[in-house]
Amino acid sequence: MIRLCSRACAYVCAIVVVVVVVAVVAVVGCAPAEPVGPAKVSANQEPVALLTLPSTAIAGEPVDIDGGDSLDVDGHIVSTTISFGDSSAPLATNRSEQSLHWRHTWTEAGVFDVDLAVTDDKGLVGRARTRITIAPAPDTNAPAMTSLALSAL
Known about the structure:
The chain has helices spanning 2-29, 145-152, and strands spanning 56-58, 62-66, 77-83, 91-94, 101-105, 110-120, 125-135. It is an alpha+beta fold and 153 residues long. The strands form two sheets. It has a five-stranded mixed β-sheet, with no helix packed on it. The model is unreliable at 1-28 (pLDDT under 50).
């Protein structure tokens, strides 16, 4: 009977040892890979330039362009440059001088790329490009269809 008890105790002891070893391995496996200490400073992230404008417009009519959703998650935007893709000069502004809204009039029909560059307080630049198709302006010198129809009668 003593042997049976000893054998039973041996099994119980073996199970306890296995459970303890598994628990220790599980706890050590969950330990953080890096020592806990002061928060790490992440690298500067590039700002995000966002442009909103219609995809089509008519030559000679002003178009509203919005870059107000542009952002910098780890700082702030300090300057912008926008180019309208036509013969007009790009507009460079200091963020404190102007909000990110523009109005531009294309004088010729065509397809134009509008480019926005935003620069953050640490010197990184984010860029966005949106294409706009400008249709020809209606010919105001052409006779109206109703006057043609009436004169033919």
